[in-house]
Amino acid sequence: MTTYVSASSVSNLAPAPPALVVPVYMYPAEGAWSPLFAAARAHPNLTLMCIINPGNGPGPERLPDASYKSALEQLCALPNVQPLGYVHCTYGKRDVEDIKADIDKYAAWETQSGQAFRLDGVFVDEAPSDPALEPS
């Protein structure tokens, strides 16, 4: 859901709480994400926007493997974590339908996992800087 804020109401907004973007590009082998979980617990007033990247995107399977499932369940249980799925655009050279398919696959994770884990959005990497490469 997209929320739009008018320019006149910006001055009435409270300051945003601190946030940190964390690229979590490592495989969740046993204990590999434990420092991330500990950091989130130690800093409950800090939002951690964690970019999840199972396979240069959501990976080839419908759902991530058992190690990812377990780590994502733990990550999503932390109230100050916003998990985001990684999607690459190859600087405008990747087919738009493939990008949309990655986003759709991430969106289906929550319902297909019995809501054990979720993603709060996507992180779009390698976006095109040349307007000629932007999708129409």
Q: What features would you describe in this structure?
A:
The protein has 136 residues and is of the alpha/beta class. The chain has three helices and four strands; from the N terminus they run βαβαβαβ. It has helices at 34-42, 66-76, 96-112, and strands at 19-24, 47-52, 81-88, 121-125. Strands 1-2-3-4 form a four-stranded parallel sheet, covered by helices on one side. The chain is globular, with a radius of gyration of 17 Å. The mean pLDDT is 86.
Concise overview:
The chain has 136 residues and is an alpha/beta fold.
Query: Helical element count?
Result: 3
Largest sheet: 4 strands, parallel
- Specify the CATH homologous superfamily: Aldolase class I
Summed over residues and divided by their number, the pLDDT gives a mean of 86
The Cα radius of gyration reads 17 Å
The dominant shape is globular
**Helix content percent band:** 25-40%
| Fraction of residues in β-strands | 15-25%
Q: In total, how many domains does the architecture comprise?
A: 1
Number of strands: 4
- Order of strands, widest sheet: 1-2-3-4
Ends distance: 22 Å
Helix-strand makeup class: alpha/beta
Low-confidence stretches: none
CATH architecture: Alpha-Beta Barrel
User: According to CATH, what is the class?
Assistant: Alpha Beta
Strand/helix succession: EHEHEHE
CATH topology: TIM Barrel
InterPro entries: Spherulin4
Protein name: Spherulation-specific family 4
Pfam family, one: Spherulin4
Organism: Apiotrichum porosum
